Recover the amino acids of this structure.
């Protein structure tokens, strides 16, 4: 099943850059522009006191954009393949996994850039081997959450629009444009409750060579496992109803 999902993911990547001159590099323009804008705002407007801001933004935004893109695309995993779902015995798991993998593979070069930049600056060299674990945690979490959204969307067609709004709010409740230590009071509590925070904190710690604690790994691991269990359970419970509603 993984091989089938990977093949479909590669096909999706090729399809999105069909008949364009720049090809798949168009998919990199959005994160590059976001990093450039945030760098300017944080460095010259807010004058944020964040050490090695370039690596901070690479590690934070790469993980965030993978999360955001995969969740939004997962909403359409089944709806956009209505004919395939109704006429073939295709696994929900495979289709969602393909969409999650396609988003992750497109942005994977930024992780490589982060590794090279970390080696160049001598930052976080000892943590580089932990990057595959970070990547795995994010993929498992997205697969579970993606199954939930893919299963519910055919029943509740407003979900993609609602999710888009919620992700915009979640971005500012995730320590990307600021350090988590800057937040106090109710704001700190909301940031801590945000599940995306814990994946971004782990990404920052791994790439920037920060102190690694058990909770820093345990929280994303638990979130990923819970997400996957809920996603698979929900998909199996109302999968038939989902196909009918397509």
């Amino acid at each position: 099943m993984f091989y089938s999902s990977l093949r479909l993911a590669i096909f999706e990547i090729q399809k999105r850059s069909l008949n364009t001159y720049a090809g798949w590099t168009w998919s990199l323009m959005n994160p590059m522009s976001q990093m450039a804008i945030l760098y300017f705002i944080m460095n010259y407007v807010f004058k944020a006191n964040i050490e090695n801001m370039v690596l901070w933004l690479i590690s934070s935004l790469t993980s965030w954009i993978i999360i955001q893109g995969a969740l939004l695309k997962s909403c359409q995993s089944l709806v956009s393949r209505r004919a395939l779902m109704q006429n073939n015995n295709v696994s929900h798991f495979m289709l969602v996994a393909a969409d999650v993998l396609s988003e992750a593979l497109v942005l994977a070069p930024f992780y490589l850039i982060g590794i090279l930049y970390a080696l160049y600056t001598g930052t976080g060299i000892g943590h580089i081997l932990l990057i595959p674990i970070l990547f795995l945690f994010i993929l498992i979490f997205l697969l579970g959450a993606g199954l939930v959204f893919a299963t519910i969307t055919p029943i509740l067609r407003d979900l993609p629009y609602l999710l888009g709004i919620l992700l915009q709010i979640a971005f500012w409740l995730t320590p990307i444009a600021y350090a988590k230590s800057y937040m106090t009071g109710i704001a700190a509590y909301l940031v801590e409750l945000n599940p995306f925070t814990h994946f971004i904190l782990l990404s920052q710690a791994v790439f920037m060579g920060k102190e690694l604690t058990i909770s820093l790994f345990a929280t994303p691991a638990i979130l990923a496992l819970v997400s996957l269990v809920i996603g698979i359970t929900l998909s199996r419970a109302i999968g038939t109803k989902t196909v009918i509603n397509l």
Q: What stands out?
A: The chain has ten helices and no strands.
